[in-house]
Amino acid sequence: MTIMPKTPDYFAGKTIIITGAASGIGRATALIFAREGANVVCADINEAGAHETAALVNGKHPALAVRVDVTRRGEVDDMAARAIAAFGRVHFLFNSAGAAIRRAKFLEIDDALMEKTFALNVNGTLYGMQAVLPHMLANKHGVIVNMASMAHRRGAPGSSIHYAAAKGAVVSMTLGVAREFAAQGIRAISISPGPIKTPFQDAAQSSPALIQRFLDDIPMKRFGKPEEIGELVLFLCSDACQFMTADTIYVNGGGGWR
Fold first, then answer.
1. Whose CA is closest to 152, among 132, 175, 124, 178?
2. What CA–CA distance (Å, rounded) separates 243 from 159?
3. Tell me, what's the pLDDT at 4?
4. Contact at 8 Å (CB) between 142 and 185?
5. Starting from the edge strand earliest in sequence, which strands make up the sheet with 39-44, in order?
6. Whose CA is closest to 143, among 74, 190, 88?
7. What radius of gyration do the chain's Cα atoms show?
8. Residue in 58, 30, 61 with CA at minimum distance from that of residue 44
9. Is the pTM higher than 0.85?
10. What count of other Cβ atoms lies within 10 Å of the Cβ of residue 202?
11. Which stretch of DSSP H or E encloses residue 177?
12. What is the number of H-type helices and E-type strands within the chain?
């Protein structure tokens, strides 16, 4: 077992909501928190996938599967209410749901693509934070981790400037929330990964040439693993880094700067 939390059994009985929990980083993070004794709310628009993750977790600790479309505020509010009803208290939120929707050169980005990308990545993160913050503030404790991307630093020219812009908004929003509520027991941090081996990445990497271009820019010469992000989320939520808030953390094998 990883010696991550400063306090033994720190996560035992605490509750995390994870959006995008049906696969990839979300599912890996759910299993890692379960390993540490947490209650896990597995939320995803893919209801079957959310139930599969919850079933994997349930062997270890209580889990709740929730179907949620994070682009709909009412569904996100309901997700938070169900989590509180099931477990009494929510300590952590990991907004992992997100995607580039589709690849497009800049002049091909239309209104629909921009709106869908921001609805999923930005509004989804906004709704999640607004749904849990009143509860966290009442308890004077909460950690929110939001999924950003290296794309916000490099702009993703030629393929996904719409996605880079949305993730830039996530970084800025996380910074603002962290600073607004820093004195009230809330920490908010974003993670900006380079390429991670997930179903989302597999779908986005349509050509071997593109995969090679990514690898050429990573000194470690490999993609990250979902579990490597999940372990970071665990650390960020732990009591080992209570002075950490507001910034984004880059996880990229030394690359991803192009």
1. 175
2. 36
3. 62
4. yes
5. 63-67, 39-44, 15-19, 92-95, 142-147, 186-193, 248-251
6. 190
7. 17
8. 30
9. yes
10. 11
11. helix 161-180
12. 10, 7
Per the structure block, which two tokens stand in for 96? 């992992």
Burial 94-115 (b: 16+ CB within 10 A, else e): bbbbbbbbbbbeeeebeeebbe
* Amino acid in position 103: R
Q: Tell me: the pLDDT tens digits for 111-142?
A: 999 999 999 999 999 999 999 999 999 999 99
**What are the distances in angstroms from CA 102 to CA 54, 147, 180, 247?**
28, 18, 34, 28
Residue located via tokens 């209104």: 111
In sequence order, what E strands does the chain have? 15-19, 39-44, 63-67, 92-95, 142-147, 186-193, 248-251
Please state, as a whole number, how many other Cβ atoms lie within 10 Å of the Cβ of residue 57.
Answer: 26
% of the chain exceeding 90 in pLDDT = 83
Distance CA 258, CA 255 (A): 8
- Give yes or no for residue 168 having a pLDDT over 70: yes
pLDDT tens per residue across span 26-59? 999 999 999 999 999 999 999 999 999 999 998 7
Residue 206: the pLDDT is 60
pLDDT band at 62 (very low <50, low <70, confident <90, very high): confident
Q: Is 254 in a helix, a strand, or coil?
A: coil
Phi and psi angles of residue 158, each rounded to the nearest 5 degrees, phi first? 80, -5
* Structure confidence at residue 212 (pLDDT): 83
Looking at the annotation, which residues are catalytic?
163
**How far is it, in rounded angstroms, from Cα 149 to Cα 250?**
8
Neighbours of 1 (CB within 10 A): 5
Is the pLDDT at 201 greater than 80? The verdict is no
How far is it, in rounded angstroms, from Cα 26 to Cα 19?
7
Better-predicted residue by pLDDT, 202 or 31:
31
Pairing relation of β-strands 15-19 and 39-44?
parallel
